Amino acid sequence: MKTVLVGLGMVADTHLAAIRDAEGIELAGVMGRDTARAQAFADKASAAVGYAVPVRSSPAEIAEDRTVDFVIIATPPDARQELVDTLSAAGKPILMEKPIERTLAAAEALVARCETAQVPLGIVLQHRARAASQKLKQLLDGRALGQVATVEIRVPWWRDQAYYDAPGRGTYARDGGGVMINQAIHTLDLALWLLGPVRRVQAMLRTTPLHRMEAEDWAGALLEFDSGACGSLMATTSAYPGEAESLSLQGEKAAAHLASGVLTVTHLDGRVETFGAEATTGGGADPMGFTHAWHQHVLEDFAHCLISGATPLASGRSALEAHRVIDAMERASRSGHITEITRP
Fold it and tell me: Which parts of the chain register pLDDT below 70?
């Protein structure tokens, strides 16, 4: 299958490596806002994959090319609307980097646009693709932990000021917010995928003295899940030198701890099981310090779903749940009150 990569920023190299190693997927072009930079990336991509990768001139050109099977959108979230409108009108399936958009309303509108056009939309939420995450999902679905009572989500990451000095980064206009929508959305999405929706939140979002930025670099929340489980969340990019994010669950039969790609299950009868393999996750000073294998899994899953008609690992509709919680956290932080999450 042929794909075009639109958006050549920080995560583009990860997508290139994923496409290079993916089975049955060809990079049929790249597109970026800067023509010279796009050509340089195309040259690098050609060397990586072993065939010529052209630079695409516009979304319309991509939309009109019948040989393109789907498009990967890796632009900042403020550059999505025109792309999605053009590609969905042409029936092009879309695999998009998180977040979907800057606000919940904009994200819902974008997902609805693709659904109305009957265009498959997948979101790159690669934490779902980890082997340890898949195993925990299997255990939870099989009730191996029993009813989950408590949940702890921690994202103690570090970003230096140079990261936020990049134009638009950490602003509401380009990114839609700070640590929650840009970094912690991955771990939050994983918790929601594993445990189901959240019904209400209490939260506080703040900017610490460690960064000069518009949006928050620290967030704390109390969560009540529809299942009855209660949870806490702490996410920051001001925890030097940065640690791996983690998800801890306490169930009736066992406790589960997921961190750095390793799942540890401690049963109440004393048995301890471990699954997965340790891997870096980008929590330290290098935002791209993680394997491309998870992106490759998401990419291959999306391509296979286009052939089979199945739902992608992270569909646009399912990815909205994390946006709803983040929106509720922002409203709760402003009001100081417990905030209900409503759904259409």
Answer: 280-283, 285, 288-289
User: Can you read off the two tokens belonging to residue 136?
Assistant: 């925990």
Residue 118 CA, chain-centre distance (Å), reads: 22
What's the rounded Cα separation, in Å, for the pair 164 and 17? 26
User: How much is the pTM?
Assistant: 0.95
Report the pLDDT value the prediction gives residue 285, as an integer from 0 to 100.
63
What mean pLDDT, rounded, does the chain reach? 96
Cα–Cα nearest to 244, from 225, 229, 257: 257
- What tens digit of pLDDT does each residue of 259-271 get? 988 999 999 999 9
CA distance linking residue 299 with residue 180, whole number of Å: 24
Given the structure tokens 């089975």, which residue do they identify?
23
Burial class (CB in 10 A: 0-12, 13-18, 19+), 31: buried
- The residue among 4, 56, 19 whose CA lies nearest residue 298 is 19
